[in-house]
Inverse folding.
């Protein structure tokens, strides 16, 4: 399993503050997938910078972005993700947003999306530390099944499937 965690933040990219959300996501992934390869990157906000980062991680099964999903003018992560992806996975983004809404009404401002580029999943997480951790924890039980589906290995190997 290969992951890429991309933090999208002007301030983290220019060194104004240390990225905390990206390392927190990595910690969650490592605790559940100790053998996984995880690449990390921090880029500034903007469509072109996010597209560039996505293009640098084509070997990843899952690209998880954190940041750039809000309504501010520089928040362009969803736009870049939609340009990169061939297909959308709206249920995944809706699931994460719904779970966030149970914690804070401010989750209504998250514009994060989820989609696929070939067999690769791309999922946008909010930039806040607590939301990034929560989204990573919510994603963990879905990763293996999603990866198997993307690779075309079927559904029968997963608990809860009677097909």
């Amino acid at each position: 399993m290969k992951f890429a965690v991309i933090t999208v933040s002007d301030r983290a990219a220019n060194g104004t503050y240390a990225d905390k959300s990206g390392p927190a996501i990595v910690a969650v992934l490592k605790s559940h997938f100790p053998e996984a390869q995880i690449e990390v990157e921090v880029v500034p906000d903007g469509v072109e910078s996010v597209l560039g980062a996505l293009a640098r991680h084509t070997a990843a099964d899952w690209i998880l972005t954190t940041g750039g999903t809000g309504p501010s003018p520089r928040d362009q992560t969803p736009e870049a993700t939609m340009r990169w992806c061939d297909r959308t996975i709206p249920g995944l983004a809706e699931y994460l947003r719904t779970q966030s809404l149970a914690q804070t009404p401010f989750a209504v401002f998250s514009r994060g999306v989820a989609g696929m580029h070939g067999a690769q999943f791309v999922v946008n997480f909010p930039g806040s530390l607590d939301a990034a951790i929560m989204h990573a924890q919510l994603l963990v039980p879905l990763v293996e099944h999603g990866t198997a589906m993307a690779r075309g290995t079927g559904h029968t190997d997963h608990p809860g499937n009677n097909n």
Remarks:
- The beta strands are 2-8, 37-43, 62-66, 87-88, 114-117, 120-125.
